[in-house]
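Appendix B. Extra example for self-study. Work through it before the problem class; the solution is given directly after the inputs so you can check yourself.
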Amino acid sequence: MNMGKDAFEIIVNGLKLVIIFLMIVQLVPILVWVERRGSAFIQNRLGPNRVGPLGLMQLLADAVKFLTKESFVPDTAKPVLYYAAPIFALIPGAVAFAAIPLSTAFTVGTFELFGSSWGPYTFLVQGYDIGIGIVFILGVSSLAAYTLLMAGWGSGNKYSLMGALRASAQTISYELALGLSIVGVIIMYNTFNLTDMTMAQQGPLHFSFMGYTVAASWLPNWGIFYQPLGALLFFTATFAESNRLPFDLAEGEAELVAGFHTEYGGFKFNMFFIGEYGHMMVAASLMSIFFFGGFGIPFVTVDQVHQWAVTVTSTPNWASALVALIHFLVFNVKFFAFLWIFIWVRWTLPRFRYDQLMDLGWKTMLPWALVNTILTATVVYIASL
Amino acid sequence: MTADSFLFWFLAIVTVTSGLSVILMNNPIYSALSLAMTMVGISALFITLNAFFIAGVQLIVYAGAVMVLFTMVLMLFDLKHEMQAFVKGKFTGFIKVASVGLLAGLLVGAILMSVGLFTEKTTDNPVTFGTGMEATKALGRILYTKYLLGFEALGVLLLVIAIGAVALSRSKGGTHEH
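Solution. Structure tokens for the complete assembly:
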């Protein structure tokens, strides 16, 4: 929680927050392009391919269009809520994403600058490290329901209100399954801290069971092999949390025009869009941290990478930077793989009916998440005997 | 003024202001949203006290679930009559003034109490400061050993409330009458 002990550390930590926020915002247009081209590819169309190479400049054209659109407020709207909702839409995703470890810590030895000596420092490649990692992220992302309610009610439109009510009922219902599905992970790794969870998944598969050591050198030590049911439930619940197909009852174009953001246009609509992608990014990174080893390279431990990095670089600072860079790239590979799965599922599965949605949440996912919790607790207890 | 005290005063002002606006707002929906803001402020105050787990649970349970349900139900109702009754009349005005007085009394009381606590140094406090996980483990241990009976009794009470609500809604005159 503390920002640093001197000016240099505070400035770097502050800059980190800005860079992570910009990362989220800058990733959105690229994801929109991937989504539009990907959906076209899935549906045997071409997609936007006219503006610039491969249609990449379409993003800039869209941004200009968003910015220059007429700012429109409906007569029946409540102005305060109507304007506040899109701004609040950005907060949960951005605040939660900043608490996610993107790579190993980057250490800097003492050095001379501006006539005085600084350091040594350890910079985490994450916005801030709050002791309770995952509880904080769940808490912050649970606030996203207010955005929908504020937008839906503030627009003064019946379709918007219906969309908002559906969406908030859906988020509350699936939050239970979401929270319970990761209790198994927390019991197994015995920590809330996301970096510690990642570190526990290094190397090939190995664990101790009632005093015996079990090892399988042909599998990485990933959470998915211990918690397959938890992974499935968590991934499903994150779809519902980010209001994407097949769980986008909040929008339901055929019934509700566009749900809670019917009355929004231009940049205000764009901010809802960024919020939705922010949720997707948080979900994709949590998925890779809980079940796919986070920033770790499969079969290889961080220490092994560090030993290799020391042999190819001249100073410890460069070695640490190289290790951090490699793990950051590995994290990004997993991160983008899950983002692609999010897009892929959206354009493959049809939307649920509302009663099917509630049945799935309360009668299927919640009981199975409870079973997973009890089973994991029992097995962990037996294994520790 | 240090950064910590600045943070405390900022959060305190935000929390108290939104707490006041819960009772001073005319529209129940704005009141509910202000209450949610109060919950977020309290959760941030818990973080400044190093009680990370309680802060997270406060966010998830109160701000993220309970208040969302309140707001949702309020939005379903047509509140024009209630707003009229709420805005006009000496009785409601009296209630508003009385609740402000109560809140002010509570604040003064809390300040006086905490001053006493700081000077006394209580020893019956096994939760030591540390990382989020250590404090959480200590909290869990004390909940499941020393205060087990109260903890379980609360769980039963919540279950009774849930079943009671379902039973009431299904009985005669309820919304789901068969």
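Self-check: Residues 26 and 369 of chain A are 35 Å apart (CA to CA). If your reasoning did not lead you there, revisit section 3.
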